[in-house]
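Re-run requested by the PI after the first attempt was lost when the workstation crashed. Everything re-entered from the original request form. Ligand of interest: iron/sulfur cluster.
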Amino acid sequence: MDDDIRITGVMVYYYFVCKRKLWYFKHEIQMEQGNEAVKIGKLLDETSYGRENKHINIDQTINIDFIRESNVLHEVKKSKKIEEASVWQVKYYLYYLKKKGMDCVTGKIDYPLLKKSVTVELQDEDVLKMEEVLSDIKQIIGQSLPDEARRKNICKSCAYFDLCFI
Ligand code: SF4
């Protein structure tokens, strides 16, 4: 990546979840520690796919849950609730690897609690959209204040709820 702003997979995920959350995250306003959903996610991470070589960090930018043979990278999620965000997080990993010359990789989102997985591929049109998303992310995190809080279904389970609405 040719830019000085490091965009992580989590930032791409938050972009699709909530742009305000993305801003909080980038500005190091953290409230996730005590959140129940986060605790479940961590437990799942520790107990799933125990024999795999987990958390492959590339350039301190993307953190792949694990890679299996046949060049398939895996991202583990606990629910399909915000699947679009998960899909774009994985597409970002594929995009990032493609930029580094590795374009024979595909992705998979695993839902161990649901015993399901979804295949993710990076299409040509995704590359264009990804570039727009990355440019938008840079604009959002460069703002001095976050976007206005707009209530949505996920807000009630979000760690930042009090900060946004109370
Ligand atoms: S509470 Fe809602 S608006 Fe606030 S950061 Fe979370 S998801 Fe975004």
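Saved to the shared folder this time. Strands lie at 54-58, 62-68, 72-76, 106-111, 116-120.
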